[in-house]
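User: Hey, quick favor. My workstation is busy. Could you predict this chain's structure for me?
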Amino acid sequence: MSEEVTKKETAVAEKTSTNKKVGAEKEVKSLKKEDSVASEKSQVKPKIKRRKNVRRQVQRGKAFITSTYNNTKICFSDLHGNVLAWSSSGLIGFKGAKKATTYAANQVLNNAHEKVQRYGLKDIEVFVKGVGSGRDAALRALVQKGYNLISIKDTTPIPHNGCRPKKPRRV
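Assistant: No problem, here it is.
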């Protein structure tokens, strides 16, 4: 009986020792693979191409002026609709009722003009939306900045007797 037990123990010991050896070999192989991959990566340095920070030149574009009772936003885009620069009175730092003033609209256009100057924009189609006080101020500022206005279109949404409008303010 003792011989049978010793045979079983040795068989179990051999199995466990072989399992350990197989696992250890796998670990060693995987470490060797990682080392070889790491050494290959260190030897091969990827060539990094640096792009020049050159802006594309856009001669003609569109200017979208959105003027509401509470805010004024201006967006410059190319003829395909890709945005070149934008600005709003909240972005500049105006808060509350000051965002809707004509001075804020003028500052919004100055901010957007600085951003879009890099593209060399000259000719503009203007699309005006809304009924706020900044709408005329923004148009005047566009002319003062030297842009050639090709067309001015009013895209204010007008309902065909849709929803009931807000009651007029009594001041």
